[in-house]
Amino acid sequence: MGGTVTAVSSNGEYSFTKPNRSSITLLAGLGVEGDVHAGVTVKHRSRVAQDPTRPNLRQVHLIHEELFAEVGQKGFRVAPGELGENITTSGIDLLGLPVGTLLRFGDGAIVEVTGLRNPCVQIDNFQDGLLKEVVARDEDGNLVRKAGIMGVVKEGGVVRPGDPIKVELPPEPHRPLDRV
């Protein structure tokens, strides 16, 4: 099972969107080099306010490009990096991966999947009504978060658009993703 990197993005300042780059460098145990969310401990403002000493399980944010087409059918126009992700992918059901999945990029960078992004009101600040499209309920009434997944960098390396992504599932039993 695998897919492709369609875009990479980073930002050294707090901002909802992240500009696209020709490449990003992943640093083991830290995240994306030069990105405001890189670090051993939490960097997202809401998490820092709760407990700045907690481990950073949100070093890398990934979104599947297929989400952009889905919300596009509802009239929203979203491009890579605009929802704050570092890596935009295609061809992988990111939301269906279990905790502990390893994503191997191009020449050797490895990200371990830790959980789901918990969408927030900033998405509506970006485009009014978009939050409702990336947070839904399934047929059983369970909350479904569609705004991507989070991970930690296990092996560093450079990631570029066009790089292949190899998916390595963890040993069973698999744990479904939950928000981190």
From TrEMBL:
Q: Which InterPro entries match?
A: MoCF_Sase_C, MOSC_domain, Pyrv_Knase-like_insert_dom_sf
Q: Which Gene3D superfamilies match?
A: PK beta-barrel domain-like
Using the record's annotation, list all stretches that form the MOSC domain: 18-168
What is the protein name given in its UniProt record?
MOSC domain-containing protein
Q: Name one GO molecular function term.
A: catalytic activity
A Pfam family that this protein carries is MOSC
